[in-house]
Amino acid sequence: MLSTKSAHVVxxxxxxxxAAIGDITPVFYKRMFVAHPELxxxxxxxxxxxxxxxxxxxxxxxxxxxxxxxxxxxRDPLEVLARIAHKHASLGITxxxxxxxxxxxxxxxxxxxxxxxxxEVASAWDEVYWHMxxxxxxxxxxxxxxxxxxxxxxxxxxxxxxxLQESPDTVxxxxxxxxxxxLPAALPGQYISVQVxxxxxxxxxxxxxxxxxxxxxxxxxxxxxxxxxHTDDGAIVPAGEVSNFLQNNLFEGDEIRVSAPFGDLVLxxxxxPLVLISAGIGITPIIGILHYxxxxxxxxxxxxxxxxxxxxxxxxxxxxKELVAQLPAATLHRWYEDLGVRPTRDxxxxxxxxxxxxxxxxxxxxxxxxxxxxxxSVRRTLVxxxxxxxxxxxxxxxxxxxxxxx
Length: 406
What we know:
Elements lengths: L3 H32 L1 H6 L3 H6 L1 H18 L11 H10 L6 H16 L5 H29 L7 E13 L2 E7 L14 E7 L5 E10 L5 E7 L4 E2 L5 E2 L3 H9 L5 E5 L14 E6 L3 H13 L6 E7 L8 H10 L3 E7 L11 E3 L14 E5 L2 H13 L7 E4 L11
Parallel strand pairs: 9-10, 9-13, 10-11, 11-12, 13-14
Antiparallel strand pairs: 1-2, 1-8, 2-5, 3-4, 3-8, 4-5, 6-7
Helix pairs in contact: 1-4, 1-6, 1-7, 5-7, 9-10
């Protein structure tokens, strides 16, 4: 815990720091990337940096952690770190990188807040940073130990065995070891990082959920090629450089660098009813969970709800139906914004997910994955229906901007 003196200072200055942290994080990243351009090229997601998503996620994480750290009751501050630690482990983050972040983050704080950062304030927030950093290092080193690797040594080279066009913009890949040796076991719901060398020399990394393991030497992932788009205020969101590169350049026999499996959205091994809710490419961890349930002969009650733009754009559409059919106590409901001329029936509906048309078991474990607005809407509805928040689990592709409120 923080020292009594620091806790008082942090509590007193949290409104000011919290209000300014959205201004501090862009300055921090700019300073750090000038000093260490290799981090922007080879570690941080350049797309998220350009959109400001990474800055928002960092601001939310720091503010949430500091708030919980000085709260007299409530959630354990370590709870907000598990997802970050898994993401860091999948990137191979090591303890020696935290002093770099510290140097440039505190320089940014001083640059933005100026004279308001007295020695007493700086000392207190320095204590917050190292409290958070040391906790992350401890969790990350534990994850490395569980995976059986030295800290940061998470990478291996696999070979593309096959690729399948799942929908117009989505391709599934099966990756295998060159010598058919077994891969580390992954838990249902986890992901791997994929590292690619881009034409400009950068080595960018992205995370993709494991959909299945056809053999002990193979992993399946599915990648949606993200097109350029516009935000609500008209700003251009660039096309996904890694997703498009992989779809256009990764073919059978090619090698690819991937990490060990990580991720904290893991299926709980309990008998409570299970509700799996997804939209779009958020189907991928759900497919991984369903494969696990089918392969283990699960008799658990399972309710599967999925929303998509249209049947033609629904990746793993037929596979989803077949997996649900293999589970004796599973039910599938689907919604499509454009149903076309297909008839509407009780498990195939036009429009968006409507939780009012299905009965959610009161004691169910619920897993969400999809676009952030979709998950926020579904989670809000579930809470209004008196589903305990502790029973709602979620996965976010990219920076977790939901962390501070979830």
